[in-house]
Write a structure and sequence with these properties.
The protein is α+β, with helices and mostly antiparallel strands. It contains one helix and ten strands, in the order E-E-E-E-E-E-E-E-E-E-H. The radius of gyration is 27 Å and the shape is elongated.
Length: about 140
């Protein structure tokens, strides 16, 4: 099974057990992170594409370490003006291991309260119909 998740303004295709270096997220080594922005979930035979996100899908991961990327040198120069500037940058990264892909894990939990609410409306609606009929009989 695989999924396409969105984090840090980028999209990643992930599978169970994959190790990724992504833009810095809060959390110490060993912490669990849940990615709720899942764009696509699929296995060998079928795929579920979100519009833009797959409802209820999530990916869980464990933080392995907080790291820094290699240093990048930013060099600016204007010819014939004795202007040179050098600046360095190291992007902070979080290294995570994908633990599980939940195609509709959160959806099942959210569906139960909605069903209970619909049943409550139906039962109160059934009580309202005889009352409305009784009122119309009283008026005539």
């Amino acid at each position: 099974m695989f999924a396409v998740i969105k984090t840090g303004g980028k999209q990643y295709k992930v599978g169970k057990g994959d190790v990724l270096s992504i833009e810095k997220l809060d959390g110490d080594a060993g912490a669990e992170i849940r990615f709720d922005e899942v764009l696509l979930v699929g296995d060998g035979a079928s795929q579920t594409v979100g519009a833009p996100l797959v409802d209820g899908a999530a990916v869980t991961a464990t933080v392995l370490e907080q790291a820094k990327a290699d240093k990048i040198l930013v060099f600016k120069k204007n010819r014939r003006h004795r202007y040179k500037r050098t600046q360095g940058h190291r992007q902070r990264l979080t290294v995570v291991r994908i633990e599980d892909i939940l195609p509709s894990g959160a959806k099942k939990k959210a569906a139960a309260p909605k069903a209970a609410a619909k049943k409550a409306e139906a039962s109160s609606g059934a009580d309202a119909a005889p009352k409305a009929a009784a009122k119309s009989d009283e008026e005539s």
